[in-house]
């Protein structure tokens, strides 16, 4: 099993859900988007203002929608690739240690601030 297949596997092991292929996951996402009424409202609200008067409106509207989809898929592919690179970088031990130290320091500072406010009477009653 590849890492891509493992990423789309059922999140609950031992359930009746079968493993999904990447294409099946894409089809589910595409169907969800196509059946989402907000997507239709978006296209009805934005596409007409970009239609020239001297072209068939249906054809030009479809071309603009396809162009929007292609640009969106390219952008999302770029984000997915960047997230994969960031995941490799962020999963290192040095980054985990630094994150733990920063988080611990922030939590201690917040706790100290709350304690100081209680001691000095500056805490607000709810």
Report on the biggest sheet: none
Number of helices: 5
| Alpha carbon gyration radius | 25 Å
How big a fraction of the residues is strand? under 5%
Number of strands: 0
Mean pLDDT: 84
Determine the structural class based on helices, strands and strand pairing.
Answer: mainly alpha
Instruction: List the uncertain runs.
Output: none
Helix content: over 70%
Order of helices and strands: HHHHH
What separation lies between the terminal Cα atoms?
A: 54 Å
Give the overall form: elongated
Notes on the protein architecture:
With 126 residues, the chain is mainly alpha-helical. It is 71% helix and 0% strand. The longest helix has 34 residues, at 57-90.
Provide the descriptors you would attach to this structure in a database record.
single chain, 126 residues, mainly alpha, 5 helices
List the helices and strands and how they pair.
Blueprint: H1 3-7, H2 22-34, H3 37-46, H4 57-90, H5 93-120
Task: Offer a concise description of the structure.
With 126 residues, the protein is an all-alpha fold. The chain has five helices and no strands.
């Amino acid at each position: 099993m590849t890492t891509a297949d493992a990423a789309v596997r059922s999140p609950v092991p031992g359930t009746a859900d079968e493993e999904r292929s990447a294409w099946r996951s894409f089809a589910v996402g595409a169907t969800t988007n196509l059946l989402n009424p907000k997507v239709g409202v978006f296209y009805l609200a934005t596409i007409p203002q970009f239609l020239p008067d001297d072209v068939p409106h249906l054809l030009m509207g479809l071309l603009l929608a396809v162009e929007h989809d292609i640009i969106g898929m390219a952008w999302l592919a770029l984000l997915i690739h960047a997230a994969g690179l960031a995941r490799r970088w962020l999963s290192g031990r040095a980054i985990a240690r630094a994150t733990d130290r920063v988080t611990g320091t922030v939590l201690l500072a917040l706790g100290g601030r709350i304690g100081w406010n209680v001691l000095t009477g500056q805490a607000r009653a709810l």
